[in-house]
Each structure stands twice: as structure tokens, then as C-alpha cells.
């Protein structure tokens, strides 16, 4: 089955476009790598290529700042990334993404600040789940479920101490999915 999917190309020719371009949409499905690549070509020239994959992160039973940087670097390498844009997306109503320093206490400071700004108490109207769970549903308004980072020569264009991190304070759901998408420049 995997061998049948690798290299499978679906072409949709002569798309009806609002511009006078005759385009071909090419979607190779790369099952062995676990991600999908999509390219739009015009007159034989690759206009854009996007690679995407989803990973599973086990966050456990405590609020956590999980550094995604190594997983992102592996994804960029497997996608053969050059210059472009990385987009990270968390399809959950109670988790967010940040670019922050980790390992020197900033991650713990962030969790402490979240507890101060969004206390886990009974003030929340949204009350299902564990005590104070309503605050978990407010978290993405402060820490969005997305982040975009430039990629230069296949590497994240982050500063020396910056890491891309998943923030999960929802102790009721210890498994998260995170989607990485790379759009080539």
C-alpha cells in the first residue's frame, strides 16, 4: 500500500482560474515520510510547493511548555526545505504556540504568568472538565494556536535563544496534535 502511494501524482489540468493562467495542480502523496507535498506549476515552472505533516505530542497531566524546535528541524530536513515559511498549527481549543527561550526558567515563568493572568478557579462560565478548566479555553486568545517563522537555507530564522513551543495547560487532554507546514519561497 505504501509503495503504491509513494510518488502518486494527481494532476488536475486546465483549471478554471480568475486569471488567464493555464495551471496544473500537482499533489504527490509521500506516505513513507508521513507528509503531503503540494505544488502549483505554470508553464513548467514551479510557482509554490508546500509540505505538511502532523505530529502527536504527549503533554501529560501537568501544564507544560513543550519545545517543538527539534521536531520542526527534522521536518524541514525531510521536506528538503530551502528558503520559505514555516507555519505551525495546533488544532485544539485549549492549547497555544509561542516563540520563547526555554531551559533558563522562561518556560516556568510563562506557566506562572498564565496562572496569574488566567487563574485555575471557579470564575469561568465554561465549567466542564477539571476544576478551573474554563481558563484553558481562554488561553488561545492570549497564546494563539498558530506561529509562522521564516526559513533560510533550510534552517529556522530564529534568534539564538528562541524556540517554537507548544503550551498546554489542559490537564484533561494529555495528547496533542501539531501540524507543520512549509511553503517554499
Automatic annotation (TrEMBL):
InterPro entries: UPF0047_YjbQ-like (IPR001602), YjbQ-like_sf (IPR035917). Belongs to the UPF0047 family. This is Secondary thiamine-phosphate synthase enzyme. It comes from Rhodococcus opacus (Nocardia opaca).
Amino acid at each position: 500500500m505504501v509503495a503504491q502511494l509513494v510518488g502518486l501524482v494527481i494532476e488536475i489540468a486546465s483549471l478554471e482560474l480568475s486569471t488567464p493562467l493555464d495551471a496544473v495542480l500537482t499533489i504527490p502523496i509521500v506516505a513513507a515520510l508521513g507528509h503531503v507535498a503540494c505544488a502549483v506549476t505554470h508553464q513548467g515552472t514551479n510557482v509554490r510547493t508546500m509540505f505538511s505533516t502532523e505530529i502527536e505530542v504527549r503533554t501529560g497531566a501537568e501544564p507544560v511548555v513543550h519545545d517543538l524546535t527539534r521536531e520542526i528541524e527534522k521536518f524541514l530536513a525531510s521536506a528538503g526545505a530551502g528558503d520559505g515559511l514555516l507555519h505551525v498549527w495546533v488544532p485544539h481549543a485549549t492549547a497555544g504556540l509561542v516563540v520563547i527561550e526555554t531551559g533558563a526558567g522562561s518556560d516556568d515563568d510563562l506557566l506562572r504568568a498564565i496562572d496569574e493572568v488566567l487563574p485555575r478557579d471557579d470564575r469561568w462560565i465554561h465549567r466542564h472538565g477539571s476544576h478551573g478548566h474554563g481558563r484553558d479555553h481562554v488561553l488561545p486568545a492570549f497564546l494563539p494556536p498558530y506561529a509562522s517563522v521564516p526559513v533560510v537555507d533550510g534552517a529556522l530564522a530564529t534568534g539564538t535563544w528562541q524556540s517554537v513551543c507548544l503550551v498546554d495547560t489542559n490537564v484533561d487532554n494529555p495528547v496533542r496534535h501539531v501540524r507543520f507546514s512549509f511553503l517554499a519561497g
